[in-house]
């Protein structure tokens, strides 16, 4: 009788531990999805601000700490360290943005670091869906976070299908060549 009770308690405790572990895992994944969503929006916002002549003029008038913050590169890096499907999707979605300089380099590195794990996703990439995703994100942000920036349009922020195809091919070649990033 004692053995059955102890065995029953062990089964219950094991089930509770498993449920708790699954809850933590679910919470962790949910948290990463939220972080990736936020980071993707930050990247679009920072890119738009960097393209805005009015924002550059305002930054020049600011005597302290109004210059670029590095948030764009940091947000790309934070997406890059994520291992969820949302992080993978976001890295691919970022190919739809007209990133240049450090932002483009950071994105390329994050994609190359993922390497083969991202290769099939890149090969199946539909440029039209990236254009649509970029444009819808931009228009959504224009309603709230970017409502004060009127001198940047969607074509300045989002790449065309042809540009996405070129970038897609570059990333595929870099992964196949096992390119390395310099940090």
Write up this protein.
By secondary structure, the protein is an all-alpha fold. Helices cover 75% and strands 0% of the residues. Helix 1 (2-51) packs parallel to helix 4 (85-93), helix 3 (71-81) packs parallel to helix 5 and helix 7 crosses helix 9. The radius of gyration is 22 Å and the shape is globular.
Topology (SSEs and partners):
Elements: H1 2-51, H2 53-61, H3 71-81, H4 85-93, H5 101-114, H6 116-123, H7 127-143, H8 154-157, H9 161-176
Helix pairs in contact: 1-3, 1-4, 3-4, 3-5, 6-9, 7-9
Order of helices and strands: HHHHHHHHH
Count every helix, treating DSSP H or I runs of 4 or more residues as helices.
9
The structural class is: mainly alpha
Q: How would you describe the shape?
A: globular
Domain module tally: 1
Low-confidence segments, given as residue ranges, are 1-24
- What would the average pLDDT be, to the nearest integer? 84
What is the radius of gyration computed over CA atoms, rounded to a whole number of angstroms? 22 Å
- Largest β-sheet summary: none
- Total strand segments: 0
Q: Considering DSSP H and I runs of 4 or more, what fraction of the residues is helical?
A: over 70%
Instruction: Please give the alpha-carbon distance between the first and last residues.
Output: 64 Å
> In percent terms, what proportion of residues is strand?
under 5%
């Amino acid at each position: 009788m004692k053995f059955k009770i102890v065995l029953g308690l062990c089964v219950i405790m094991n089930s509770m531990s498993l449920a708790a572990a699954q809850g933590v895992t679910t919470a962790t994944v949910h948290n990463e999805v939220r972080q990736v969503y936020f980071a993707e929006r930050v990247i679009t916002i920072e890119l738009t601000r960097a393209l805005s002549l009015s924002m550059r003029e305002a930054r020049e008038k600011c005597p302290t700490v109004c210059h670029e913050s590095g948030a764009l590169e940091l947000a790309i890096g934070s997406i890059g360290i994520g291992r969820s499907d949302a992080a993978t999707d976001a890295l691919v979605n970022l190919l739809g943005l007209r990133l240049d300089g450090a932002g483009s380099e950071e994105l390329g590195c994050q994609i190359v670091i993922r390497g083969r794990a991202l290769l099939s996703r890149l090969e199946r990439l539909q440029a039209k869906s990236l254009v649509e995703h970029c444009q819808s994100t931009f228009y959504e942000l224009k309603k709230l976070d970017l409502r004060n920036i009127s001198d940047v349009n969607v074509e300045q922020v989002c790449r065309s299908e042809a540009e996405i195809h070129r970038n897609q091919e570059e990333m595929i070649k870099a992964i196949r060549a096992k390119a390395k990033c310099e940090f």
